[in-house]
Amino acid sequence: MLQAQNIHKVYSSGNKKIHVLKGIDFNIDKGEFFAIVGPSGAGKSTLLHILGGLDNPSDGKVAIENRDIYKLTDIDLSRLRNRKIGFVFQFYHLLSEFTVLENILLPALIADSSPALINKIREFALELLGRAGLEKRTNHFPNQLSGGERQRAAIVRALINKPDMLLCDEPTGNLDSEAGEGIISLIRKINKEDKTTVILVTHNLELGKQADKVYYLRGGVLVN
After folding, report:
1. How far is CA 108 from CA 20, 77, 103, 125, 156, in A?
2. pLDDT tens figures, 167-181
3. Cα Rg for the chain, rounded, in angstroms?
4. Which residues pair with 197 in a beta bridge?
5. Domains in the chain, please, with CATH?
6. SS3 (DSSP) at 214
7. CA 115, 195, 24 angle in degrees (round to 5)?
8. pLDDT tens per residue across span 152-206
9. CA separation for the pair 201, 172 (Å, rounded)
10. Beta-carbon neighbour count of residue 4 at 10 Å?
11. 209: number of CA atoms within 13 Å, CB side?
12. Is residue 120 classed as helix, strand or coil in its secondary structure?
């Protein structure tokens, strides 16, 4: 499903080079739930962004379905992100002027806004909202939701294009423990029922332990 080979990330600060990632290697199979645990500032988000085509590595290769994503054109890489990868961030990034349903529909309409598909997309969005326990929040605006509800809406939005892979960057970071447990349960349910590959990065070891595989990012190196 995904292969990361010799991933390096180096930032420049004046005359200094800061090596954040130092030769990361791993493979993830279809349907796996993979967690990367590390403290704040360890480079977890940087690595996740590289895996999802949001940031370029200084060296190394990321392949999804045997395609080196950093050899794709900008248009093809954008299509891959839109259709193959769902992103869930610590901050929900819901658009305040749109309802929950409208927020969820946006990625699908970007992918294909043909009139013949709009009703099917809407039906699928409503199905996902039901699975996430948000069926009564369809026409609410983000500021009318709790933090946990906003994050569940963000997860549903990430799933609207039926991605093969879900990348989750500290998805419980802004939530209390009860809401956080609900989010992890939802992610786990999606992983098991839909066979969606999940990569979760977190500073919370207890959350990470719910994954099939747990790796630790320390000193720029991934260890298990």
Report:
1. 34, 16, 10, 10, 12
2. 999 888 777 777 788
3. 18
4. 165
5. 2-223 (3.40.50.300)
6. strand
7. 110
8. 899 889 888 888 999 999 888 777 777 788 888 888 888 998 899 999 999 988 8
9. 10
10. 20
11. 3
12. helix
